[in-house]
Structures are given as structure tokens and as C-alpha cells.
């Protein structure tokens, strides 16, 4: 096809328009050149033509938008991101059914944010037409992201995610006030600020005229957030129109890196200007004589401000305020004096780090002064919401754990009763899962190529001061060496590494920060980086660690061929880190005058330093260029622990250089030792399970009603970290999960109690012996591995009546805090209704492990290794037969899985399927016998996964019972 055809097709794929038959307008454009016209087959050929880059880019973008659309009438009854939605799109484009499969293969659905929402009391208002009419600030923000080298796909996904949030807010022109309250759940250091900046841009385009961004409780974070919004959204013209010159010495301001709007909003009536009520150097102050700054302009005084005639020409006010009682009180006091009627002002409140200070998660054991302060902050936010009837509240957090959803009184004010949006994990993001091996590799099989732990994690196990100094030196050497590698990469054409930092986090106490900082200063002087004596030590580290990891994890980054090539850059790295007063900067709540050191300002200059701190560096604040982390602090709260994961984030061009030095034997109460790496892994797994549950039950049921609403969400997470708050689930929630059924989808039941004396293991084995006696056949089943390669496994199998399976699983005991009852209710209901008659039970036989003799049992059985979680971190096991589950889901009728011909032959409409796994779980002194046999039933655990028949619950169902009628509380954080 010609370029003319490509251009004609691409023009019919315009941004913001619905899918329509593409053939007729294309032929109209090409009438002169192609009088006989193209056929729909020709159009499909263009869509699939790799050389038609512009067409493919445009179609990918449009399909992404159309797949996610949730308010336009053309979607009919289809749900976002569903196969039915994609088929609807193809039909509207005029593509025949026989082309759908090939189109799907070439343009797969990308997915999107997961949304849990209550039904809204209004018709959709944030339509594509509304978005096209008012998009000045969103277009400007997109331009900024493109200039930052965001690719089109990433910007497109942000567009979808922010639209999902904004259309769940109330229409700012709505005659009746309505407060929508929601929560956006991201990942630690994963770009939440980019999301809420996009939401703010779209919200002010849509008509919101007062924007209040609540940051954390420290000024360094508030200032960082203010500057980013100023630089990427407010823009030079709006900043210059004010009286403040807070960026006079800012390097990016001087270099012209702040957003320059295409049209100066201060010189036209068509675009509203933005007026800043705070600056990068000053939090909110009482306006006093300048109170008119909050007086909103109106064109027609006979109409309210929220009328479109007044609203769109009116300028925007934006305040970035830290969660501090004094600042918030000043804002509340000024709002009470505003001349404009408060119930007419469409306001947007963005609460960044919403689980910090905004709600009352007070531990009664804490000091009384902290109780008063935190409660007072919550009270001020509630008062702002009370004053501004049109205020929309959106909380942002990276820790979707229980303390976000607190007691009944708080839930009246900031509980996200309207929506929860769980953001996708960004592609280049380096998060918790990237530092752990969640697929349960055997330790002997781990290499830097297949193990995140081997690649990025270095243990801290010092038992004496000498060992501790050696570990600190290795971390410091790693910091210098990675700095040298970055400079080497710059010399080979890599983008400049403006910042290079190391974070040391050992304590929350300021006095201890001084001692730690002095330790690293002394170590810096004695390490000899400016002398030849350090080179042999650094060469050994490079050869044993960084050269090995970068070879398998370095991607396209340039790597030195030998240490000799790297030598010249070590001195340069040492010089950059040594510049200024000291290589170490202490970052905590103490006054800067208390330290003789350089200021920490990532905006004003490049920072190559070692940062020592605690709380100030553990929530919200972005540590730019972070490469080496030295972490040994223990905390007693799960969300706080996750927030300390400053090593999460985007690491462009140096992902392979990141190292986490983490305490494996950190002292705690009563002399106990805590493994912080395992603690993090437990939280990462809990968070992953929570997000998986949100995904399963997002959307609507067959009646068009939400499967779950935000009030139902907290009971869906299994969180078993006994030494972290919150603890037992029966103390956490106002709603009980009482029914959970997903037809054709397997669930692993691994949450077993600690081994103890092994008697529970023995009882579990006895419970499943009736199932084992029915396994009288053997055959081969298929599954798709993690590399999308079809593989097979052999299993014994048999058909067992459903009531026999129910009797067996009823005898199992479960970990404290985990409840089998919702699953049992679904199981028994399916049996009683005749939708479940029997189970195909499978016992896989590993290819590389021979069956073992079992004491008291007449035949050998396969015993596999599965990691038991240690009680201090998480009970139960890490998995059942993860990959082999394809077979049981196929047998149970899942249309998405292929377990091979035998699985298909075993399928019946009323048949479920179950996999049994026996996992090594010996007493410490019996390990050898557990591997070789004969084995006592006390020394292995019985694990299982099962899938209900797809026909029993084809759409899935989840049910709740409210504990206390009339309350919005879901969590008791005590």
C-alpha cells in the first residue's frame, strides 16, 4: 500500500473520537487516486502492515482508549478491557469476525487500572466531548512528559488512569453539591505524583477552581511537591505573574526547563490562569490584606460561580500545604472569610500519603502530644470538607493496608466511599517484587540471572563492631564503584547521571543519626579511595559482584570490559562525592544550623552524597539517583515498613547497579532478632494478593451492579505478620467476608499453621487418604510456563464425589487470621444446588524427584520442596502447584486455560478439579530422612488447590456481612 493510503487510514483514527466504520471515509479521501475504492480486506492489511508505523501507532493509541472507555454510549453493555469490548470496537470499525483473532494477536489488550466503585448518583459527565472542549492544561502536561522522554504508550496509560479518577468526581457545574471521596493506590516511589498532577490538570480543565494538595508532614516533601507542580503544570507565565521570585536561583528555572505554555493564560480570556497560594519556599500563610486572592471572578453576578458561564473564565487557585496543624488552621480561617459563597466553589483536595496523619491511626501507647497533633490534623481536613460542599477528596497512598480504613468517625470524613483505583505497576519500575524471588527458587538453583535476591540484595549479619565496619565498607565501596560505572557509561554516550546517592537508614532517632554519620565520615577517610591501596579491594568487588550482575542484568547499558578501563573513573567519582563540606548529609527533623554540611537540594544542583536519616527519608520524599541502600531499621507497622522501601523506584540506565544491604538479624524487643528482608517479602506477597483480589472483583456483575464497593475491600486481604500492626483480621474489619466463589479459577490453600510437633500435618494427611485411594489412573497434562512455552507433567488422577472432598477439607486447620469459611460456603452452596457433583483430583509426579516411602501407607508418594514461611513473618507455604493449575482450571471449564487433551476429556459441566501436593516439612533433625524416606506423615504438609466448575460461578461472586450496621468503619487499627 502507498503512503497516501497510510495517511488516509491514520486520519480516521483521531484522538478522542469513537470507533466508526473506517472504510467509507477512507475511500472518500482516496476517490481520486483509487476510484474503484479499497476493500475492508485492504484496510485490515494496512492495520497489520509493519511498515505503516503511523497507522499502527494511532490504532494502538485508539484501541487503548476504546478498551478503557466507561462513559460513552457506544460501549453498549460491554465492560472495559473485556474481550466483548474489543469485539464491539471491531464491529464498529467494520472489521469482519474472521479478522478479529489476527487483530487481537497484533494489538493485544493492555489492561488498565483496577477500579472498585460504588454506583454514582449522576449520569456520566466527563465525556470525550467535554474533554476535547477543555484540555489546555492536560495538553501542556502531556507535552512536559513527552519532553521527559515518556513514550507514547506510557503517556496513554496515564491518560486512561487519570480519566478513570476524574470521571468519578462530581461534575463541577452540577447544580447540587456532591462530595465524591476516593483512594488511588500506587506503588512506593512509582510515579503517584505524575498521576495526581495529571488528575489536577484534567480537573482544572473540567472546571475545578480551588486545588489543595496536602503533602506529608515535613517541609522538604511539601517543597519538592510544590516545585514539581510549578515546573510541570503551573508554568513560567503563571509563576511570573505572581509576586514571589522563589526560583531566582533555581538551575532549571535559569535554564528554561520550567513549562512554557503555548498561550499565556494571563493574556487571554479563553484560558484560566493559575494563582499560587503557596510557593516552594513558603507553606500556606494567612492572606490577611491579600484575602482577595481567594475571591473568585464572575462574569454574570446573577449566576453562581459553578455555572459554566462564570466557572470556565474564572482563574484557578492552588495551594500545596503540608499536614501541619498551624498551616491547615490558617487555611481554614481564610476559607471562612472568602467573599465567594463556599458552596459554589468546585474544589479538589489531593491528599498525598493519605495514610499518614489524615486519619486517626493512633496507638494509645504513644505519647499524648502526638495523639493530639494527629487528631488535630484529621480535624482540620474534616473542617475543610465541611466548609467546601463541592470539594472532592482523593487520597493517594502506596500502602494499601488496613490503617487507611480506620474507625467510624474518621470514615465519615475521609473514607473512600465512592471509589478505589489501583494503578498498574509501571513497566520500568523497580519495586518490591524486583528484590525478592516470589517464584520460590531453590537456593542452590539461584544465580544473578534468575534470582533477584542474588542480583540486588546483600545481607547484613554483623555480630560485632568489626564485622559491622566491614559490611559498611562494602556498602561504601559499592557506592564509589557504581559512581565510577555511571561516569564510564556517560563517557560512552549515556545520559548524564545528575544525581548519585546512597541512603543509610538505621534508626529514627536523631542522636543516632549523628553517630552513624560520623561512622561513615570516618570510614570515608580511612577507605583510601584517593590512594592506590583501595584499588585491589574495589577490583575484587567489581569482579565478584558488579561485573557478574551487569553481564546478565545490564540490558543495553555499556559495561567496562575490565577493571583497568574503570580505574580512571574511580578518582572522578571520589571527587564528585567529596565536593562541598562533607560526603555525608544528615537528613532529619533537626535544624540545619545543627549540622555543618551541604543542603540537600536535588533541584538546585547535582547531588552525589551519602544520606543518613530516618522518617524524613522514609515517606513520600524522592531520593534522586538512589543506588546503594544500607538498611537495618526495624518497625512495628506494616505500612511504615513498606514506606521505608526508598530503594523502590525508577532507575534508568543503572538498574543493574542497584544494591540493597539489609539487616537479616536486627535486634528487637526481648532480645529477639528480626529478618527485615523476609519481613519485606511477606508484605510484598500480602500486597500482591490484595491487588489480585481487587482485580478479580473489580467491575460489575450480571445485573450491572458492582461486585464489591470500597466498603467491602479490606476483608479481602490476608495479612499475617504477627509482629506488625494491624494484626488479626477479626479485629480489623467492620465487614466480614462470608462467600467467595470464582468458577473455573483455582485458589491455593497454603495458609497453614506453624508445624509445631507435626500432628497437624499427620491429621491433614489422614484427611486426604480417601482422595488418594481414588487415584486409579495416570496421564499427561499440559501447562504454559512463565516463558509462555507449553510443557507437560504426569499425574495420577481420579474422580471423587464432591461431598467426599468437602469432608476432607473440613478437617484442615488454618493459620490464625485466615478464614476458609467463605470458600467453604461457595463449595457447599454449589454442591447443594447441583452445580458441583464431583472433582477430578490430580497428584502430580515431578520428573526429577522419585516418590518416597511413607510410613503406614501402602505406596510411595511424591514429596516436593515448598518454602514454609517462618512464623515471625508469615505462616503457611509460598505456593502449591502454580504452573500445573492450568490443568485443573481447564477441567473445571475455564475458557482461558488449556491443560491438554486429557484435561479436556475430563471436563464436565458439574465437575471441579483439585491438585494435591505433599511438601517437605520435617523437624529440623529429620531433614535427611524427609528427603530420602521412609517419611512420617508428621514430616510433610498436605497442600491443595481447587477450582469450582466454571458453570457454578461463571462471573464470580463475593459476599459480605456487616458487623455493625450504620458504621463506615472497616478497620480497627489497634
Overall description:
With about 950 residues, the chain is α/β, with parallel strands linked by helices. The chain contains 30 helices and 26 strands. Mean pLDDT is about 85; it is low at about 360-375, about 400-410, about 720-735 and about 965-974. The chain has an 8-stranded mixed β-sheet, sandwiched between helices. A 6-stranded parallel β-sheet has the order 10-16-14-11-13-12. The protein is globular. Helices cover about 35% and strands about 15% of the residues. InterPro entries: Put_endonuclease_Z1-dom. This is Z1 domain-containing protein.
Gyration radius (Cα, Å) is 30 Å
What is the terminal-to-terminal distance?
68 Å
Q: Report the helical percentage.
A: 25-40%
**Largest beta-sheet characterization:** 8 strands, mixed
Instruction: Briefly note the structural class of the backbone.
Output: alpha/beta
Q: Beta fraction of the residues? A: 5-15%
- Average residue-wise pLDDT: 84
List unreliable stretches of 5+ residues. 360-374, 402-412, 718-734, 964-974
Q: Overall 3D geometry?
A: globular
Total DSSP helices: 30
The largest beta-sheet arranges its strands as 1-8-2-7-6-3-5-4
Count of DSSP strands: 26
Oligomer: single chain
List the helices and strands and how they pair.
Blueprint: H1 3-11, H2 23-29, H3 40-48, H4 53-68, H5 83-93, H6 100-106, E1 114-117, H7 128-133, H8 136-147, H9 152-166, E2 181-185, H10 192-206, E3 210-215, H11 219-234, H12 236-240, H13 251-254, E4 274-276, H14 308-311, E5 316-322, H15 325-335, E6 347-352, H16 368-387, E7 391-397, H17 408-414, E8 419-422, E9 429-430, H18 452-456, E10 457-460, H19 465-491, E11 500-505, H20 510-526, H21 535-553, H22 563-578, E12 584-587, E13 608-613, E14 626-631, H23 638-643, E15 649-650, E16 659-663, E17 666-667, E18 673-674, H24 676-696, E19 735-741, E20 747-749, H25 759-772, E21 777-784, E22 790-801, H26 802-809, H27 821-832, E23 838-845, H28 885-891, H29 901-906, E24 911-920, H30 927-932, E25 940-947, E26 957-962
Parallel strand pairs: 2-7, 2-8, 3-5, 3-6, 4-5, 6-7, 10-16, 11-13, 11-14, 12-13, 14-16, 23-24
Antiparallel strand pairs: 1-8, 9-15, 17-18, 19-26, 20-25, 21-22, 22-23, 24-25
Amino acid at each position: 500500500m502507498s503512503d497516501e493510503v497510510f495517511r488516509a487510514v491514520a486520519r480516521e483514527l483521531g484522538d478522542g473520537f469513537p470507533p466508526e466504520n473506517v472504510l467509507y471515509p477512507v475511500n472518500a479521501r482516496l476517490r481520486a487516486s483509487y476510484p474503484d475504492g479499497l476493500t475492508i480486506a485492504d484496510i485490515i492489511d494496512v492495520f497489520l502492515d509493519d511498515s505503516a508505523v503511523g497507522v499502527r501507532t494511532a490504532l494502538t493509541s485508539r484501541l487503548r482508549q476504546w478498551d478503557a472507555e466507561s462513559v460513552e454510549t457506544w460501549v453498549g453493555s460491554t465492560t472495559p478491557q473485556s474481550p466483548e469490548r474489543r469485539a464491539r470496537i471491531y464491529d464498529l470499525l467494520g472489521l469482519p469476525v474472521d479478522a478479529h483473532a489476527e487483530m487481537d494477536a497484533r494489538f493485544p489488550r493492555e489492561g488498565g487500572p483496577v477500579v472498585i466503585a460504588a454506583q454514582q448518583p449522576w449520569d456520566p459527565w466527563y465525556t470525550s466531548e467535554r474533554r476535547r472542549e477543555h484540555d489546555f492544561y492536560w495538553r501542556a502536561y502531556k507535552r512536559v512528559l513527552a519532553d521527559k522522554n515518556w513514550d507514547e504508550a506510557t503517556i496513554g496509560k496515564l491518560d486512561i488512569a487519570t480519566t478513570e479518577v476524574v470521571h468519578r468526581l462530581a461534575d463541577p457545574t452540577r447544580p447540587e453539591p456532591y462530595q465524591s471521596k476516593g483512594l488511588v493506590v500506587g506503588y512506593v516511589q512509582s510515579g503517584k505524583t505524575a498521576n495526581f498532577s495529571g488528575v489536577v490538570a484534567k480537573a482544572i480543565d473540567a472546571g475545578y477552581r480551588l486545588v489543595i494538595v496536602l503533602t506529608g508532614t515535613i517541609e522538604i516533601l511539601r517543597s519538592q511537591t510544590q516545585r514539581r507542580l510549578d515546573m510541570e503544570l503551573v508554568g513560567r507565565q503563571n509563576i511570573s505573574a505572581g509576586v514571589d521570585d522563589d526560583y531566582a536561583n533555581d538551575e532549571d528555572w535559569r535554564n528554561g526547563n520550567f513549562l512554557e505554555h503555548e498561550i499565556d493564560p494571563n493574556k487571554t480570556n479563553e484560558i484560566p490562569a493559575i494563582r499560587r497560594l503557596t510557593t516552594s519556599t513558603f507553606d500556606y500563610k494567612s492572606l490577611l490584606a491579600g484575602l482577595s486572592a481567594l475571591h473568585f471572578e464572575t462574569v454574570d453576578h446573577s449566576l453562581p460561580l459553578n455555572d459554566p458561564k462564570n466557572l470556565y473564565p474564572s482563574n484557578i487557585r492552588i495551594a500545596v500545604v503540608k499536614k501541619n496543624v498551624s498551616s491547615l488552621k490558617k487555611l481554614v480561617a481564610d476559607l471562612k472569610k472568602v467573599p465567594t459563597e463556599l458552596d459554589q466553589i468546585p474544589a479538589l483536595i489531593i491528599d498525598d500519603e493519605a495514610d499518614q496523619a489524615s486519619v486517626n491511626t493512633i496507638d494509645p501507647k504513644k505519647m499524648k502530644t502526638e495523639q493530639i497533633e494527629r487528631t488535630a490534623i484529621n480535624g482540620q481536613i474534616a473542617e475543610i470538607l465541611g466548609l467546601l460542599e463541592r470539594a472532592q477528596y482523593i487520597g493517594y497512598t502506596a500502602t494499601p493496608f488496613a490503617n487507611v480504613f480506620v474507625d467510624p468517625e474518621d470514615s465519615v470524613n475521609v473514607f473512600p466511599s465512592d471509589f478505589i483505583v489501583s494503578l498498574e505497576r509501571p513497566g520500568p519500575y523497580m519495586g518490591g517484587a524486583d528484590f525478592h524471588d516470589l517464584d520460590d527458587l531453590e537456593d542452590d538453583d539461584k544465580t544473578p540471572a534468575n534470582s533477584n535476591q542474588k542480583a540486588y540484595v546483600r545481607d547484613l549479619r554483623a555480630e560485632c563492631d568489626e564485622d559491622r565496619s566491614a559490611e559498611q565498607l562494602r556498602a561504601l565501596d559499592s557506592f564509589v564503584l557504581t559512581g565510577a560505572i555511571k561516569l564510564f557509561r556517560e563517557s560512552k554516550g549515556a545520559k548524564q547521571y545528575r544525581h548519585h546517592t546512597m541512603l543509610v537508614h538505621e534508626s529514627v532517632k536523631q542522636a543516632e543519626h549523628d553517630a552513624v554519620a560520623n561512622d561513615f565520615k570516618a570510614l570515608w577517610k580511612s577507605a583510601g579511595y584517593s590512594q592506590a591501596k583501595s584499588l585491589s579491594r574495589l577490583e575484587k568487588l567489581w569482579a565478584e559482584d558488579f561485573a557478574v550482575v551487569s553481564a546478565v542484568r545490564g540490558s543495553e547499558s555499556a559495561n567496562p570490559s575490565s577493571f583497568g578501563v574503570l580505574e580512571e573513573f574511580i578518582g572522578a567519582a571520589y571527587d564528585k562525592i567529596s565536593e562541598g563540606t562533607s560526603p555525608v548529609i544528615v537528613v532529619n527533623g533537626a535544624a540545619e544550623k545543627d549540622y555543618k554540611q551541604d543542603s540537600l537540594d536535588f533541584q538546585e544542583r547535582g547531588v552525589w552524597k551519602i544520606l543518613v536519616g530516618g522518617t524524613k527519608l522514609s515517606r513520600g520524599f524522592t531520593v534522586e539517583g538512589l543506588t546503594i541502600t544500607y538498611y537495618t531499621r526495624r518497625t512495628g507497622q506494616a505500612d511504615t515498613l513498606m514506606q521505608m522501601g526508598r530503594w523502590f523506584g525508577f532507575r534508568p540506565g543503572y538498574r543493574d547497579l542497584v544494591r540493597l544491604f539489609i539487616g537479616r538479624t536486627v535486634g528487637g524487643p526481648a532480645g529477639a532478632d528480626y529478618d527485615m528482608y523476609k519481613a519485606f517479602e511477606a508484605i510484598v506477597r500480602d500486597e500482591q494478593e490484595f491487588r489480585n483480589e481487587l482485580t478479580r472483583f473489580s467491575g460489575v456483575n450480571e445485573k450491572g451492579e458492582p461486585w464489591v464497593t470500597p466498603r467491602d475491600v479490606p476483608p479481602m486481604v490476608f495479612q499475617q505478620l504477627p509482629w506488625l500492626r494491624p494484626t488479626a483480621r477479626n479485629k480489623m474489619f467492620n465487614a466480614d467476608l462470608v462467600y467467595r466463589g470464582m468458577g473455573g479459577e483455582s485458589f491455593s490453600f497454603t495458609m497453614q499453621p506453624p508445624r509445631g510437633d507435626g500432628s497437624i500435618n499427620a491429621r491433614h494427611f489422614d484427611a486426604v487418604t480417601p482422595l488418594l485411594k481414588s487415584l486409579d489412573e495416570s496421564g499427561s497434562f499440559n501447562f504454559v510456563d512463565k516463558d509462555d512455552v507449553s510443557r507437560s507433567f504426569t499425574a495420577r488422577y481420579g474422580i471423587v464425589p464432591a461431598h467426599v472432598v468437602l469432608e476432607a477439607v473440613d478437617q484442615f486447620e488454618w493459620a490464625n487470621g485466615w478464614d476458609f469459611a467463605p470458600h467453604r460456603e461457595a463449595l457447599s452452596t454449589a454442591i447443594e444446588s447441583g452445580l458441583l457433583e464431583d472433582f477430578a483430583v490430580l497428584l502430580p509426579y515431578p520428573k526429577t524427584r522419585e516418590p518416597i516411602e511413607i510410613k503406614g501407607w501402602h505406596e510411595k508418594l511424591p514429596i516436593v520442596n515448598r518454602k514454609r514461611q517462618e512464623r515471625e513473618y508469615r505462616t503457611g507455604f509460598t505456593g502449591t502447584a502454580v504452573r500445573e493449575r492450568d490443568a485443573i482450571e481447564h477441567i473445571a471449564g475455564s475458557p482461558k486455560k488449556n491443560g491438554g487433551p486429557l484435561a479436556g476429556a475430563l471436563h464436565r459441566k458439574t465437575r471441579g478439579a483439585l491438585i494435591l501436593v505433599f511438601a517437605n516439612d520435617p523437624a529440623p533433625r529429620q531433614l535427611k530422612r524427609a528427603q530420602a524416606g521412609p517419611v512420617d506423615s508428621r514430616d510433610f504438609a498436605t497442600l491443595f488447590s481447587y477450582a469450582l466448575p466454571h458453570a457454578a460461578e461463571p462471573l464470580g461472586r463475593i459476599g459480605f456481612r456487616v458487623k455493625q450496621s450504620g458504621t463506615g468503619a472497616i478497620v480497627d487499627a489497634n
